[in-house]
Amino acid sequence: MGQSPPPPPPTDSSSTNHPPDATPPAHDTPPTTEPSTPKTPAPDAKTLKRKLSLEAKLANLRAQIQELKARRDELRPQLRNPDAAMTVKRHIRLLHDYNEIRDIGTGLMGMAADSRGVRVRDVYAEFGVEVND
């Protein structure tokens, strides 16, 4: 009854952190090599020249983009309202107001022409307004 527990199994110093049930890796297998890919032919002078030309164009375009961004950032504070959507809404409202005023003016000129018994064109000319205005 007073027996001590059995001693732990001996450890193999050659195994490296493998569970006791696992089979240690085989060291006699040759290392695997990647499958060789077909070599692409070296680019010819024309291809290299084209590549350099395209890279130069790309660098030029990137420089232009940076210049335009700098110019945009320089001009943005000068805008009355930098929010484009608000500017469009304001312009639409102003056009609506203009059209209402123009329609009222056209109606008044027509009434004036009727009361005088003259053509509307004559009233327009009197006020310095073109027919197509």
From TrEMBL:
Which InterPro entries does UniProt cross-reference here?
A: DNA-repair_Swi5
**Chain segments carrying region Disordered:** 1-47
Q: Where is the composition biased (Pro residues)?
A: 1-11
- Taking the record's annotation, the residue ranges forming a coiled coil are 51-78
Q: Which UniProt keywords apply?
A: Coiled coil, DNA damage, DNA repair
Name the Gene Ontology biological process terms. meiotic DNA recombinase assembly involved in reciprocal meiotic recombination; meiotic joint molecule formation
Which Gene Ontology CC terms are recorded? Swi5-Sfr1 complex; Swi5-Swi2 complex
Q: Where is the composition biased (Low complexity)?
A: 12-43
UniProt entry tagged with the keyword Coiled coil: yes
| UniProt similarity note | Belongs to the SWI5/SAE3 family.
Protein's name according to its UniProt entry: DNA repair protein Swi5/Sae3
**What species was this sequence derived from?**
Glutinoglossum americanum
